[in-house]
Model the fold of this input.
Amino acid sequence: MVVKQDCIFCKIVSGQLPSVRIYEDDNVLAFMDVNPVSFGHTLLIPKSHYDKLADCPSDILAAVSLVLGRLAGAVSRAVAADGYNVLCNNGRAAGQLVDHVHFHIIPRMTGDGVFNSWPSFSYEDGIAEQLAEKICAEL
Ligand code: AMP
Ligand code: ZN
Done:
């Protein structure tokens, strides 16, 4: 398992830092977010340290996926949420503060005002296709 000495989530995995644990198996740990966006805000992490989603080996991501949907359902039902967001911030530009890959499960209530705006725009003709080609080339 990859451990990074100064990582707070690695310290939570090892028990050096406290957390309110919900679920764990050999590969993943779920615990309550200490500064929640909403009641029930939960984090799911691989136990092994990877900075970002794209750094995670596929078997680790598969282990995360095995739990993510079930956990999201449990969190949502536990707080009688009307919906939930699953978020994985990657990089400072995207709001990632803890450099150990993690998935937020954020319960939502109708009209709660959380993430109220989703800025979006339309592509000029041909731009989506150009971008798709570039992305394919990077796969
Ligand atoms: P992000 O901005 O995506 O990196 O989110 C990091 C999340 O980790 C935030 O929602 C923090 O509230 C949460 N967090 C930071 N330290 C702890 C901790 N010791 N226990 C539980 N959650 C934490
Ligand atoms: Zn870590």
